[in-house]
From TrEMBL:
<keyword id="KW-0880">Kelch repeat</keyword>
<protein>
    <submittedName>
        <fullName>Kelch-like protein 1</fullName>
    </submittedName>
</protein>
<feature type="domain" description="BTB">
    <location>
        <begin position="35"/>
        <end position="102"/>
    </location>
</feature>
<dbReference type="Pfam" id="PF24681">
    <property type="entry name" value="Kelch_KLHDC2_KLHL20_DRC7"/>
</dbReference>
<dbReference type="InterPro" id="IPR006652">
    <property type="entry name" value="Kelch_1"/>
</dbReference>
<dbReference type="InterPro" id="IPR000210">
    <property type="entry name" value="BTB/POZ_dom"/>
</dbReference>
<dbReference type="GO" id="GO:0003779">
    <property type="term" value="F:actin binding"/>
</dbReference>
<keyword id="KW-0677">Repeat</keyword>
<dbReference type="InterPro" id="IPR015915">
    <property type="entry name" value="Kelch-typ_b-propeller"/>
</dbReference>
<dbReference type="InterPro" id="IPR011333">
    <property type="entry name" value="SKP1/BTB/POZ_sf"/>
</dbReference>
<dbReference type="Pfam" id="PF00651">
    <property type="entry name" value="BTB"/>
</dbReference>
């Protein structure tokens, strides 16, 4: 039976349709929809999912590999390529874009050679020769983020400050991620999150930006959690929290994400509950509740102890109380009160 697909020289391609298909593929990849292959490592907890047809079209290596790996959704263990570089190369298969850096270009070139991604290997080689042309990022004067959206959360990565220009309303569901280059005193756009994330809280952990909770377009607290690899700028959905929260505080300790307090239920009542997420198991588990119900508080971790500072109490009062959670003992204790009540305050540990 003759193929129903016309030859390239017979019918002019519909570029708009092609763009739509690729945009959908990107969305499927970001949200892990319709995935049919999972890549694993014996020495790392990471797992990366993708679509076999895309990878096979991009690489002879994957085409030959999938002919030997049958099944509806095979799990394949990867050798000789670390997860960070492998994820960048998988993203290249979807986008045709790769941004090598001095700290990973050699590993990317090795991985591209193994995976027979000639275009990616050429980009790495050009970078090493100093001939790669880089597009300039969006540059905004430091400490003057775009004002058409509220910025409700920021976090420190030890090298730079990250902030989110949050989305608002039912029609505006795109949030921009900015990084402040403190040397050049500019803000640089470094990612976009196409989910409703008004008043989500941010956490930085293991080269990833995590957003937790927030308010839905229906004005309800949310359980959603998303993770952005800051090198690939690819967002993925993570398992949702056990409790819908907004105005929570969060902190990462040894790769474990803690979500603490916040408002819950449609009445926006402050809660004392807390939970933690372990990326190695992909599960949320409850931790002991705080001594006081609070939202809009600030969390900071020091030597395996999490300090929760101020916030708004169950009667909407500004709290001056401080409490501490000992991760090793699993117990909370009250600390000395501040001189006055504060909420959404900033904290710096030095």
């Amino acid at each position: 039976m003759a193929s129903a697909i016309p030859k390239k020289d017979v019918v002019r391609p519909d570029k708009g349709f092609s763009d739509l298909v690729w945009e959908n593929f990107h969305e499927f990849y970001d949200q892990e929809k319709h995935i049919d292959v999972t890549f694993l490592w014996r020495s790392y907890p990471e797992r990366i999912t993708a679509h076999r047809v895309i990878l096979a079209a991009a690489s002879v290596y994957f085409d030959e590999l999938f002919q030997t790996k049958q099944g509806s959704a095979p799990a394949i263990y990867i050798e000789n390529i670390a997860p960070d570089e492998f994820e960048l190369l998988i993203a290249y298969c979807y986008t045709g874009r790769l941004n090598p850096k001095m700290n990973n270009v050699s590993r990317l070139l090795n991985g591209a050679t193994i995976l027979k991604l000639d275009g990616a290997a050429a980009l790495c080689t050009a970078y090493l020769k100093g001939s790669t042309e880089r597009s300039r990022p969006l540059r905004i004067p430091a400490f003057q983020l775009p004002s058409n959206h509220p910025t409700s959360s920021n976090t420190n990565t030890n090298k730079s400050i990250l902030a989110v220009r949050q989305s608002i309303g039912k029609q505006d569901t795109e949030s921009c991620i900015y990084r402040c280059d403190e040397m050049e005193k500019i803000w640089i756009q470094c990612g976009v999150l196409k989910f409703p994330t008004q008043r989500a809280v941010l956490v930085y952990s293991n080269k990833r930006l995590i957003t937790l909770g927030g308010i839905s377009p229906q004005n309800l607290p949310m359980t959603c959690v998303h993770s952005c690899n800051l090198e690939t700028q690819i967002w993925r959905k993570l398992p949702p929290m056990k409790v819908a929260r907004v105005g929570l505080c969060a902190v990462a300790v040894d790769g474990i994400i803690y979500a603490i307090g916040g408002y819950m239920s449609p009445q926006y009542i402050a809660t004392m509950t807390a939970e933690k997420f372990d990326p190695s198991t992909g599960q949320w588990t409850s931790v002991p509740s705080m001594c006081v119900s609070r939202a809009e508080s600030t969390a900071v971790a020091i030597d395996h102890q999490i300090y929760i500072i101020g916030g708004v109490g169950i009667d909407r009062e500004e709290l001056k109380s401080v409490e501490c959670y000992n991760i090793k003992t699993g117990k909370w204790r009250k600390c000395a009160d501040m001189l006055q009540g504060r909420f959404n305050c900033g904290v710096k540990v030095s």
